[in-house]
Amino acid sequence: GQLLDKIITAMTYKREDVYIANIVKCRPPDNRVPEPDEAETCVPFLIRQIELIKPKVLVLLGATPAKFLLKAKTINEIRGKWQKFMNINTMPTYHPAFLLRNPSAKKIVWEDLKLVMKELGRELPK
After folding, report:
1. Three-class SS of residue 69?
2. DSSP 3-state of 90
């Protein structure tokens, strides 16, 4: 969570300016990736949240939302490329946990997030 907070701040937002949601509404045992049936059960709740919030942009963090929302086989095939989900511009990128294990990927994620900022009309930090 701390790295995500830093990312949000670097984008010139505050945590309360963004809405964070997960594919599943409860943590799977040992924080494992959700099983397909778990995701299928919970995704309708996520879709309803998106309908209510009406975000301008979605940022998908990691392979799990890429798989269950965009039907991607891997995050690598769509990372950094605009997608549409529910007719909303959607940017898939790596999850902060991945960045903790692979710090060199931070630069790649920052490039993805600069695209998000541009889409939102947010001034890019120097």
Report:
1. helix
2. strand
